[in-house]
Queue: 2 jobs
Job 1
Amino acid sequence: MSSRDSRLPEVLIPAEDIARRVTELGRKLSADYATVDVGNAGAEELVVLGVLKGAFMFLADLVRAVSIPIVVDFVRAASYGSGRVSSGDVRIEPIAWPYGEGRDVLVVEDVLDTGKTLDAVVRALEGFRPRSVKTLALLRKPEAKWPVDYVGFEIEDRFVVGYGLDDAGKWRQLPYIGVPRDGGERR
Ligand code: IMP
Ligand code: MG
């Protein structure tokens, strides 16, 4: 079998399950941030910062599921190149930050693997002196030690694609999370 099998990946998390979980996460975030004053008189909106490219689809659904005032922005990070094992060398593009100091920030990631990407993004935000920084990952793999605040789904240590996640650029457009036909082995 070719290592980049072109058959549709096997469904791991169906679109309906993702939609249900996104609704739950939206409610939970709205409740949690309501108590920290976001959007109330004098307070500024929560800055929801998606990590590109993988989080683009999740973020689009998530922001429609929250009922608190937010602003949406993105940071671009890359660590994998075209392989399936983290290089450990995370590159964050410079963040344009028109929001000033003292903001509440929620960083939204597609999948938490080693945690190096979220760690790098959170460190890159320090210079903007945020009031709070929380993190949310749609998926978390078992090895992740990084203390993420919100998780959509716990998954096995396999390489997954779809719903924004790619394998060397492929399969981001799938409406579900799937496993490539070669079994999602790491290489
Ligand atoms: P970490 O820095 O090791 O936590 O890896 C997180 C990043 O690696 C994510 O933002 C993804 O871009 C990528 N990644 C990790 N696991 C997968 C996967 O199973 N499929 C696609 N991308 C992944
Ligand atoms: Mg990513």
Job 2
Amino acid sequence: MKYYITTPIFYPNASPHIGTAYTTVAADAFARYHRLKGHDVYFLTGTDENAQKIVRTTQEKGMDPKDYVDEVVEAFKALWEQLDITHDDFIRTTEERHHVVVKDIFNKLYEKGDIYKSEYEGWYCTPCETFWAENKLEDGKCPNQDCHRDVELLKEESYFFKMSKYQDQLLQYIKDNPDFIQPVSRRNEMIKFIEGGLEDLCVSRTTFQWGIQVPFDPKHVVYVWLDALINYISALGYPDGELYKRYWPADIHLMGKDIVRFHAVIWPIVLMALDIPLPKLVYGHGWYLSKEGGKISKSRGNVQDSFELIRRYGSDAIRYFLLREMQVGTDGAYSEDSLVERLNSDLANDLGNFVSRSLAMIVKYRDGIIPVATQLTAIEEEIQALGQEVILKIEECLEAHDPAGALEHLWRLVSRMNKYVDETAPWQLAKDESQGERLNTVLHTFGEAIRILGILCSPFMPKTTKKIFAQLGVGEEALNWEEAKKWDVLGEGIKVQRGEPLFPRVDLSQFEVEEDKAEEKASAKKKSAEKASSDSEASLAPIKEEITIDDFAKIDLRVAKVLQAEKVPKTDKLLKLEIEVGGKTRTIVSGIAQHYAPEDLIGKQVVIVANLKPAKLRGILSEGMILAASHGETLEVLTLDKEISTGAQVT
Ligand code: MSP
């Protein structure tokens, strides 16, 4: 069985970010899964380089477009490598092999009478590379969700593609093939869109020269979307390449919801006009949104450097987070805090912990040799049945393109195994000689479960699978999907190796400290110069912009009493305080350790921000903030002249 999967080709107008990485990571998980199932997989990704926005960006930078894209494309390739993406090909639309096919197709469509020359008069959104009729604009701006940027009026000679001619044929096709566009919400959107009437599409531009020339009219370049969609077959060597014969039609074009329309309307019509079979599935996933709610995108300035995230947390944790957090059919929320939370809970606490404690027990009680199971009980039978069920569910979810669902099921097995460790308490069994056989069975079950989890993790976290196998003492040959359905695969005498923890727990504040240090270093000179002149007279921070009384009323300031105070280990700046507010105690971590000894604060009445969202600092949940005044090198915590009940409001 062949399986041809594609990602969209990405605009290399800016480096890739965590939002763009989602499609590629998800496609990689599907490709890996199908390879494990023994399918003949072909996985294509690439870059969409002939866009007007590339011309704009490079004009602004005063750079040659080709030099510029060459550089950004390297960043894409490097990111995919670091994320262990296993694409078989990376197509760039500036490559000759692509140009040849686009020209050939443009010619064919023209000769068939499906492309004709006319004049375009209407609007264009360069960020979306989309033509808009006047009546589609919203407040005179691009109507795309999450764009709403300025559009430009175009009036230029253009070639048009007869989309309208194929409207009924496409609609019929979509109705006859209910699985062609997924999820169903996207399918319904598309049906509505097509029923609204298709206009002929402008497919060439004359106001810039960057792109693929129309073969019979070189003053025109081919419209970037027509050019880009063709990548899915140009990369296979259409019309008579071996790969084309073997892999087309695509089994799935995977993409974000914003570009389903191009793939479910323009692309099928091009293929219909050429008498080429249509892809089997166009699948539109949701977006990763930032904390504030907008789509993560470079133009919104809310992206984080993906290379830095990988350096901090490792590529598997990023892959896991992306795949786990976006529920099928909806958008996902990205923040570094939630990434760290997932890493610490699901990966470090659940998976990592099970693997390390169970291997440790095999080492401790059986010198690292996985024993043979001789006393299976109802619990082991129940676990084996759960294992079977979980694998089938994972298969179902992956076939329905729902990696989050697949991981949710996988974690049912992880949780069950952690519970099994506690239930069977091998440390108790080890104390009782008569329980030797039972202990063997439990330790054997650990080994089998680790093996199965290693296999099941591999589409999602390939590095983790390698680490698990190395620690379990089994080789690459153990990576066989069908074998995950069996228990009792590990033969006698396998020796486990305890290794580094799979996922060390992470504390976000450690990176804040790093960032602080980097910042400190960068401004060291400036600071020391400032210090010299302002030791006695430090300059005051400027007064911030005005707020209303309602803004101020949102901040709940209260009087609190410090009950306990201690330094947070391994930090210079942080104190951990136990405080009492209106009869309740809470913990606050405060950066005042360089100004106060813990004992100086105990018993003092201070003022706190009581409704500040709790945040973890060095692994400690800080539930509020202490007010302090600072000027230059000095810092004074706000205290009260006379005692007042704690919990009293400060207004
Ligand atoms: N070049 C076109 C695609 C042409 S395919 C023939 C394009 N490129 S893009 O770089 O803007 O986007 C590529 C993909 O990244 C799209 O599927 C888009 O939905 C996805 N994403 C971009 N930001 C995203 C998020 N914040 N979250 C999830 N996916 C996101 O469109």
